[in-house]
Amino acid sequence: MKTRLVTIPRSCLALMLAVALGGMAANLARADFIDINPVKDNTLYEYVPADGDRSNGIGDHFFAGKTGMGFIRRGVLAFDIAGSVPPGSTITSVSLTMHMSRTALSNARTVELHRLLADWGEGTSDATANEGQGAPATANDATWRHRFYNTIFWTTQGGDFSGTVSASQSVGDIGDYTWSSAQMTTDVQSWLDNPAINFEKAPAPRA
Predict the structure, then answer these.
(1) Residue in 108, 75, 113 with CA at minimum distance from that of residue 94
(2) Is 50 helix (H, G, I), strand (E, B) or coil?
(3) Pairwise pLDDT comparison (160 vs 2), residue with the higher score
(4) Dihedral class, residue 159 (left if φ above 0, else alpha if ψ from -120 to 50, else beta)
(5) Higher pLDDT, 48 or 102
(6) 3-class SS at 71?
(7) pLDDT digits (tens, 9 = 90+) for 3-30
(8) Could you give the CA distance from residue 74 to residue 96 in angstroms, rounded to a whole number?
């Protein structure tokens, strides 16, 4: 099946934070830049009953876009903010850089980041070939229907995420793309201050 997908190698993901470090005397405070790689990532493959629940927990890529037949793919990412940034710090800027490695798009497509509202899993599913079709989900995988396969479901199929766009970027030719916004900074600050709500981002194509 011909695909029209943004394909992103997992080795090419990085969240850069500009941080004013806390916990010091005011005259000793300093700003640092911190690069963070995801602690988990996965793809939500739109559910097709004939194919069953698909995922790609340990594959090499994840996807955002639609197939040639119009089935949606959404990538999900999570970063350990509280484990990477000292408590009490102030996040002053945030950027997410991803490398798009394969596409059949002839025109640029806007890809949005949305804050996830529920936790999700990464199992041992490993898609073959170009990975666009996924693999049968394994225990605790995130799927289109499940937060954790096959016992815990999303409230809404396709993932529970905020309707607020955290950032958007036009993605065209193969190459590196960066998402950054004031809303992303607000999101990451909230995850540092309250790690229990850190379920991270869902890259998705704009409808």
Answers:
(1) 113
(2) coil
(3) 160
(4) left
(5) 48
(6) coil
(7) 334 455 555 566 787 777 654 444 445 5
(8) 16
185 by DSSP, 3-state: which? Answer: helix
Report CA Rg, the chain. 17
Dist CA 104 CA 172 (whole Å): 10
Contact 143, 55 (CB under 8 A): yes
- CA-based diameter of the chain, in Å? 63
The sign one gets for the Cα dihedral 157, 162, 163, 169 is negative
Count Cβ neighbours within 10 Å for each residue of 166-199 and write b for 16 or more, e otherwise: bbebebeeeeebebbbebbbebbbebbeeeeebb
Record the pTM: 0.87
| Residue 193 in tokens | 């201050």
Note the pLDDT of residue 62.
84
Helix (H) or strand (E) holding 191: helix 182-193
